[in-house]
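Researcher: Here's the sequence for the chain we discussed earlier.
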Amino acid sequence: MKEPEEQNANASGGGEPILIGEVPDGAEAFLAADIALDTDRPVIFIARDDKRLARAAALLRFRLPEAELLRFPAWDCLPYDRVSPKADLVATRLATLARLLRKPKVGARRIVVTSINAFMQRVPPPDFIRKLSLSLRPGQKIGFEAVQARLVDLGFERVSTVTEPGEFAPRGGILDFFPAGRSTPVRLDFFGDEIESVKSFDPLTQRSDEAIKGVVLGPVHEFVLSEDSVERFRTEYRDTFGRVKGEDPLYESVSAGRLHAGLDQWLPLFHEQMALLPDYLAGAELVFEPEVGAAKDARLETINDFYQARKSVFEAEKKDHSYKPIAPDRLYA
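Model: Thanks. This is the structure I predict for it:
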């Protein structure tokens, strides 16, 4: 990934960077708004941390209320952690990637606000999102069981009552689920194989709210445990770490089609190739906050420290159940 210049806003639409100095602290978002108004290209604003990402998003919303403003946060877990990022955060990331594959509203400027940590992290390729997306709308004939099967394939978890993103619950001819990118879950009411109505509902009271035109289904995680992706993971895992001889909980869980704590840390093993956020926005103007370069260097140092720590333990133990870290350049750029 190209190194941004420190202490400058760096806008790049495929040509030479434009370096703008002496931008007052906090005014970078307004500069990004001016760039968005002056171009037909989408804009990606890269903040140096999550706190400044949130502030930039608020300022951009104030400055350009009519713009399509999308957030793309970084994972909230440490590199090479044994836990996965939170479900609602992953839902926001996936919803943004899915939205970027669709055309913006007519006349609306598209701005993505992210952090350098998220910008550096590799993501699934656009085809992964595109092939798994499914639109559902009133009057559509698709079948109750077919939608349930699709939810399972996308990684949704079956529960008795839907309250969190990534959950679904069938009840008679009603199917509740909580897709990525929505603040409230969705209720499908079927009449035979036809979707009779699509409504949002309150996860606390479970009461249906307003009718909506439709909803787009997508994956719950940045990978799926389909037969093909599981086989790809198994092959890549053996190629990377060698033949599995004894007990390996991670390898065994994925082989059985089950989630494993921290599985996201091996995300590249599920995909033939990985992408970066700009791959979803061809020709975007990139606007970097001051000191992003230093923040990137610090992040890379942290990633390498965690990698070396995991690697040294694995090489010392040489056991199948040991944590096997993938090389940093497979997940970060």
